[in-house]
Description:
The chain has 275 residues and is of the alpha+beta class.
Amino acid sequence: MFAAVLLLVGAPVAQQVQENPKDFEGMGVNEHLGEQIPLDLTFTDHTGQQVKLEKYFNQGKPVILTLVYYNCPMLCNLILNGVTEGMAGLDFDAGQDYEVVTISFNPRETAELAAAKRKNYLQELGRPDAPDGWTFHVSPDEQVKQLADAVGFEYAWNDERQEYGHPSAIFVLTEDGRISRYLYGISFQPRDLRLSLLEASEGKIGNTLDKLILFCFHYDPDARGYVVFAGNVMRLGGVVTLFALGGLIGILWYRERRKRRNSNKQDEPAQVVSQ
């Protein structure tokens, strides 16, 4: 989908998506892995209600945080499209297994605009009537700026271009509000979203197979995604081999024991019953 979009808008715009214009140089992400974000910040949700950020935490679920602005001419839409496509490939349920919180860093945007954006993306996700799971917010500048600083997200308004400059990243947080993982780009593979949510939940969501898969993958900052961790795969293979050998030895031992027991019964002299 994204490749088609880039082809339609043309090479010059595609290059803008891939590279920061000179006007926006120096705007990136300073990672604060493991640090706590402020949960006492207040935002306005898509229904117009004032909510504290803590509402979405301490519920036993990891949280995906996206910082965008809704009137962004391109990049923010591509980020939200990428999140939507990644979520569509998960068998985890937003609202039950994890939360997604989207906040605009443009203080001039309204709750009505947030509601319209939310409606569009929930329809794209195939959940138009979902009451929760993915919430959209607007905010006074000082509140969202505190949150952006906490996660290391840099953005600034450019008067000449009449748009915000900002990086392309989303943030996966633990259920108590610690930064667990940064995911970069405009396309978020379901595998990467799944593994980052498993990692952030510390094993509280997913099944045994998910935990084994997480054991075999680790996040590679250079690749900006999860890659196979050969050492763990070899260790897991060794454990599986030991269990398989143990099971085979157990079966052979059981068969040999049963064979001897049947042989002993055949060797026993027949009892004569006296009249």
